[in-house]
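Minutes, methods subgroup
Present: GH (chair), OT, SY

1. OT presented the first of two proteins processed in the latest run. Sequence and C-alpha cells recorded below as shown on screen.
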Amino acid sequence: MKAAPFAYHRPDTVDEAVEVLATGDAKVLAGGQSLVPVLAMRLGRPGTLVDINRLPGLDTLVVSGGELHLGAAVRQRRVERSPEVRGVPLIARAMPFVGHRELRSRGTVCGSLAHADPAAELPAVAACLRATVVVRGPDGERTVDARDFVTGAMTTAVGADELVTGVRFPLSREGEGFGFAEIARRHGDFALAGVAVRVRRDGEAVLAAFGVSDRPVVRDVTALLDDPTEAALRPATDALAAEVVDTDGDAHGSRGYRARLLGVLAARELARARREAHA
C-alpha cells in the first residue's frame, strides 16, 4: 500500500518544528523506520510530517557531566559503533538486538523511545538506567524521567505539540555490573521477553522487563540477591515473572511461556551482573 496524502515540512530550527507540531495533526520524521511502515499500511494518517534531520544540535553525541548525551537525530548505528558508548555498557549490549543493522543505520535512539513499542529494547534500557528524556514544547524545555516516559503501548508523556530533542544516560560507575538478554523467534524480531539489569556492589539491583506488558516494567530486586547464584535466584525470578507478565499472549507465545522465559533470563542476567559488579 501507499501512504495517504500528507504535507511535508522541513523546519530550520527546533522552535519552528514545535510551531508546526502545535498547528494540528503532525508527526515527527527522524529515522522513519517505525513511522514509514505505519504510513504505508495506513495505520496512521498524519496531515503533516515534520522532518527534523537537519535541525542544528540534534545530531549531538557527547559525554558531559557524567552523562552520555544523545540528540534526537543520532542514529542507532552511530551509537553502536561510538567509543563514547563504552561508558554506558548496557546500551552497548542492547544495541545489536535492536532490529537489523540496516534499520539501525537509519533508526534513531530517541525515535525508538518515542515510538514506545512494548517489545523494544531501548525504552527498557532507559528505564533501567533512569535516563532523562529532554522534551521541547511551546512552553519551553522540560525533562522526563525515563521510568515515567512510556505511559502505555505506543504512548508516551510527550504532548502532540512537543518534540523529543534528546536523551541523557548516566555513565556507569565503579562497582556496577550489567546484564541484558532477550528471546525472539529470529534475530531482529521483536522480543517475546527480555530483561535489562543493573547491579551495584553495595547490593542495589534494578531489573527492567520488556515484551511482557504494555510498557517496560521496572522492579527493585535488591532483596533477591541474598543468594546470588542463578539456581538460587530462579524461584524468586519465577515469582517475579508471574507478577509482571500481564500480556494476553499471541500466536508467538502465551502468557505462561513468556513468564517462563522471563524467569530464566532474569535469574541468569542478575547472577551475571552481580559477578561483574564484584569482579
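2. SY then presented the second protein from the same run.
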Amino acid sequence: MNRFVRPSKYRHVFGTAAKRDYCYDNVRVSLNAWDTNMVQVNPLFVSMNWQSSGGGAFAVIPLSQVGKLPDNYPLYRGHTAPVLDTDFNPFNDYVIASGAEDSKVMIWTIPEEYDEELQEIQPVLKLSGHGRKVGQVLFHPTASNVLASASTDLTIKLWDIESGQEKQEVTGHTEIIQSLSYNYNGSLLATTCRDKRLRIFDLRSNQVVQEGAGHQGIKGSRVVWLGDSDRLATTGFSKMSDRQLYLWNTGDLSKPIKTEFIDTSSGVIMPFYDNDTSMLYLAGKGDRTIRYYEYENDELYHLSDYRDVEAQKGLAFMPKRALNVNECEIARAYKITTNLIEPISFKVPRKSDAFQSDIFPPAIGDEPSLTAEEWFSGKNADPKKIDLSEGFQVKEKQDFTPSASAEETEAPAASPTAPKNDKDVSNILYSIISTILNSNSPLPHKKVKLNNHLYIP
C-alpha cells in the first residue's frame, strides 16, 4: 500500500548549535522562579535576567562579543527588586524595556560600544503606576513607542514611552496574567491567566472580545497568535499534568479546534511562531528538545526535533530581518542554560547558493506603520515589510529622548482605596501629621511613633 507524503519545503529543516567559541559564556542567570523567557534578542544585542544582589539587574550583551564574559560585566541596575522580563523596541534596536518585582517599568538606551569601565547604566525613563510586581513587558508590533506591561495587580497598562504617559488600563483578569500575544496588526491582545481562562482583548476599548476555558492544569500556560491568521496556539497542562498543545479559532473560544498530547514532563512550554514559514516552535523549560511543527489548514504537522545535551532555561528567536539568508537560515534561536547563551541555527538544506525566494518571502522590517498617537486614536495597519534578497542593514543609533524626565512618571491618580500594608498606613499618618504641624495650629511639638520609626517634628 502506497503512502502519500505531504509536500513541504520545511520537512528537512535541521538545527545546529554554535560552537562554544561563538556562544556567550560565564553568564549568571537569574534564579527567580517567575515564568518568563529569561532572554530576548534583536539584530545587535541579546539581553538576559541576571542574578545579582542588592536589587534587580539584567545584562545586554552585543552579539559580536562572543566567548567568556568578564566577571564584572556592566549591568543595567535601577530596579530595587529582581528583574522579571525585558523586551527590545522593534523599531529602535538601542532601546529596551524592563519590568521587575518593584512594580516599576523602566526604559533604557543601550550604549553603542561596550566599556569595561562602565559599571552601571541608568534608565532614561521610569514608569510607575502598577500596584504590584510587573511580570511581562511587550512592545507593540506596528506602532512606535507603545508598550504593554502586565502586573500581578491583575491589570495590563499601555504606555506611550515617548511622552512617558499611561494611555490605557486593561482590566478583566481575576488571577495572575501568565502570557501575552498581539495579533498581526496589534489591534487585539490574547492572554492566558492563572484562572485557566483564555481571553482576547480589544485594547483601546478595554473590552473582552472572546473568552473561553483554557488548559485546566495548575501549572503555567502560554499563548501565541499564529501570524496573520485568525488562529491561536496555546500550551499548558491537563488536570493530570500532561503537557498539551491546543489550536483555537479566535472567533469562538468555547472549545479548541485541535488538541494534542505532547508528553508528561513538568516544564512550561514556550511557543514561538514564524509567520513567513508557518512554523511553530515549542521549547519546554528544563527540556533538552525543541519541537517544530508546520501549520497548514488547521493542522499542525510535526516536522522534527532539535536535541541537545544541555537543558534550556529560556529561549528567544532572532527577528527574521537579521538572519543569514545566503545559508538558507530560516530561524535562529538563542537558548539560555545555567551559565551559557547558545545560538541555534535552523536551516533548509539547499544545494544552490542563490537567494531562495520560495522560503524567504518579504519579512517584517524595522519601520513602524503607525505613530503611538495614531494607534491610540483608533487606526490599524499591518507591519511594513522588506525584501530580504536585497540584504538588510541595521540602522544607526537613533536618539531616544522621552519628553518625561528620568524621574518616576506616575500614572493618573486613582480613586482612594484602603491602605495595603503598614508602610501605606505610615505614609498616610505622616502626611496628616505634617499638614497639622505646618498649619497655624498652636499644637505643641510631640514625638510620634510611626511603624516602629520615631518621627520628631
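Chair's summary of item 2: Residues 413-457 have pLDDT under 50 and may be disordered.
Next meeting: continue with the remaining queue.
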